[in-house]
Design brief:
Layout: E1 3-9, E2 22-24, E3 28-30, E4 61-65, H1 66-76, E5 89-92, E6 104-107, E7 111-118, H2 123-129, H3 134-141, E8 146-152, E9 154-156, E10 162-166, H4 174-181
Parallel strand pairs: 4-5
Antiparallel strand pairs: 1-2, 1-5, 3-9, 4-8, 6-7, 6-10, 7-8
Length: 206
């Protein structure tokens, strides 16, 4: 059964980045944060820095699969804790890379999230992991995790079930969208089927 393994928040006051997220045990309220540049994280209590580049309704929640973290841990030769990639939700039992753009997840009793865009790696991510050539390595592996927007607000906590309640009628997955936006630009026209082309200013592969 697909589950939320952990809910992770960045709560360190004064930090220059919100990528340092740690698991919490209490329920966390989730709501649409508002437009990019104004709204931050969809999780109440989570800190987002540089609102120009992060957060907002289309990047309200970031999910990454525990199974994919384990693949990276084996490749890098070091343990990766839940939240280590800056994800708000560490999942188990759901293939995040093959989630469809526009797919909806009901989490727990009320919260509904919609898969929006893949995560594009940046220099902050590379510095945080302290891995040489990390942006290139992460991009080539193409298991980016998914940002989600909030459709129905609610609460989330570790152990909540994840039910896919809607899958749109197209084949544009998070993995395909990521490859189109990074290494396989010839795939970009396919994103039109899912209305998944982001503004050019939101695409950062440096």
């Amino acid at each position: 059964m697909p589950l939320i393994k952990s809910v992770n928040l960045s709560t360190t006051a004064g930090a220059r980045t919100g990528i340092d997220k740690r698991p919490v045990t209490e329920p966390v309220e989730v709501r649409a944060p508002g437009p990019k540049g104004i709204g931050g994280s969809g999780l109440v209590g989570d800190r987002i820095h540089k609102l120009k580049h992060h957060g907002g309704d289309d990047q309200a929640v970031y999910a990454y699969a525990r199974e994919d973290l384990d693949l990276w841990a084996a490749q890098l030769g070091k343990p990766l804790t839940d939240g280590m990639f800056g994800e708000n939700l560490t999942t188990t039992g759901i293939d995040v890379t093959n989630a469809l753009i526009g797919e909806r997840w009901r989490i727990g009793e009320q919260l509904v999230l919609e898969v929006s865009v893949p995560r594009i790696p940046c220099s902050v991510f590379a510095k945080w992991l302290d891995e040489r050539g990390w942006v290139k390595t992460f991009t080539q592996r193409a298991i980016p995790g998914a940002y989600l927007r909030v459709i129905t607000p609610g609460t989330v906590r570790a152990g909540d079930s994840v039910d896919v309640v809607h899958r749109p009628d197209h084949d544009v997955t998070i993995g395909l969208a990521f490859r189109a936006l990074t290494t396989e630009r010839d795939l970009l026209p396919r994103l039109l089927a899912a209305n998944a082309l982001p503004p050019a200013r939101d695409v950062d592969i440096t």
